[in-house]
Amino acid sequence: MIEKIMIQDDLFHFEHLSDVTSTNIVAKQCKIKDVSKNWIIVSDCQSAGYGRFGRQFYSPRESGLYLTFTLPSRFKITEDDCLTFLAALAVAMEIEERTTQSPAIKWVNDVYLHGKKVAGILAESTFFPVGNQNLMIGIGINISRNEKEDEPEDLRNKRGFLFKDQIELTAQDKKDWAISLVNRIVEMLEDNKTSDYINAYQTKCFTLNQIISWKKNGRTMVGRAEKLTPRGELVVKMESGRDEILNHGDTSILAYEKEGLKR
């Protein structure tokens, strides 16, 4: 059943599905059918959930919260205009309020708890009809491990969860989480306080002050992550003394210098 929900000044069509390939894929299909509508898609599981670079986001039933919402067209922004870092901050803040735990962020869009990834964010854009950009944000949060699930061995020691004991969110719980997250992100985009959010993000970002590596034109680059620009880009100090600005891509932390953090 599709439900209409007002969030801030925007009407969203909310749909909760049992299982999908990917909530992002479903959201794209919804926009193709009617580009004028805003959507929030929630699913109990994903058979082909994915993150950046097409990497699998394991999304079993009775284990997580999986959702995608399409950004209202009144926001004239792109994927690079702070959207991803704002969404990551919103997810971290939501987790903190609901669990009283203190999540951290790995630049740019992964949320960690106790040294393990508990949430991922993926901002994507499509152009349907031609020339019309439609932005959407996919969010996956690991709530608790489903012990009945045949979890891939290579993920078992990498995935973190908000709760140690198995907790299955009800349909109403998932709806409440989804609406709250969408409301939080829309509110962030509306109030034009990007500098405040940059500061809040930096206090949670454990990538800063660490030695990191990344790929550039096929070469492995190494430097110290120092700060964020006003757009959420990562400023890295190279050994030569020059600054390298990263606005996307995958980084690996080579050396932790903050006490208490684990790789």
From TrEMBL:
GO annotation terms (biological process): protein lipoylation
GO cellular component annotations of the record: cytoplasm
GO molecular function (one): biotin--[biotin carboxyl-carrier protein] ligase activity
Iron among keywords: no
Record keywords: Ligase
Database matches in CDD domains: BPL
PANTHER family named in the record: BIOTIN PROTEIN LIGASE, BIOTIN--PROTEIN LIGASE
Record's protein name: Biotin--[acetyl-CoA-carboxylase] ligase
